[in-house]
Design goal:
single chain, 173 residues, mainly alpha, Outer Surface Protein A, domain 3, 2 domains, two-stranded antiparallel ribbon, 9 helices, 57% helix, globular
């Protein structure tokens, strides 16, 4: 799976005004986020600490996840010749999840936060706070997917898959 990021309003403001005075490495990484490149493609362009750089930009609100694709980068390459208007969406829409009672959603959200912080430690704080503010499954889903990628980088693919299964269940597929 590849994660697609885009700049937030804060990210665009930083590019335009340099108001947050990002380091050259962070600014360069922010410039490379275009809403089309996958995280794997962006990582290749960031010379050092790519995972930490992307995580920091997400946690500080300069970029956000807009989707997770199932396509491999090689499978998307032929689409480059297709005009963007005629190209199928690279990021599939999220699966429609059945309505979840508020109490059940609150329990799911709390579990997602607790498991994430237990697995990642203090680095989980910023994303965990965003997860706690999620008001619906649709708001929580992309945050859990981001947490899943972070867990995958820190603990491996199996730990990430287990986390995704527990927190996203059938809505992940």
């Amino acid at each position: 799976m590849a994660t697609i990021y885009r700049k937030t309003a804060k990210g665009h403001l930083e590019i335009d005004t340099r108001s947050h005075r990002l380091s050259p490495q962070l600014r360069s990484a922010l410039i490379m986020i275009d809403g089309r490149r996958s995280d794997d493609e962006v990582r290749k362009l960031i010379p050092q600490q790519a995972d930490q750089t992307l995580q920091w930009l997400v946690e500080q609100g300069f970029i956000e996840v807009i989707g997770v694709t199932q396509d491999a980068p090689a499978a998307r390459a032929p689409q480059a010749a297709v005009p963007p208007a005629a190209r199928p969406a690279e990021v599939p829409p999220p699966a429609a999840a059945p309505a979840q009672p508020p109490r059940e959603f609150a329990a799911t959200r709390a579990m997602a936060v607790r498991l994430f912080t237990d697995m990642v430690g203090p680095m989980a704080e910023a994303l965990a706070m965003k997860m706690e503010r999620a008001r619906s499954p649709d708001e929580l889903r992309p945050l859990v997917q981001t947490a899943q990628r972070i867990i995958g980088n820190a603990r491996g693919g199996q730990a990430a898959a287990d986390y995704g299964t527990r927190c996203l269940g059938s809505a992940q597929h």
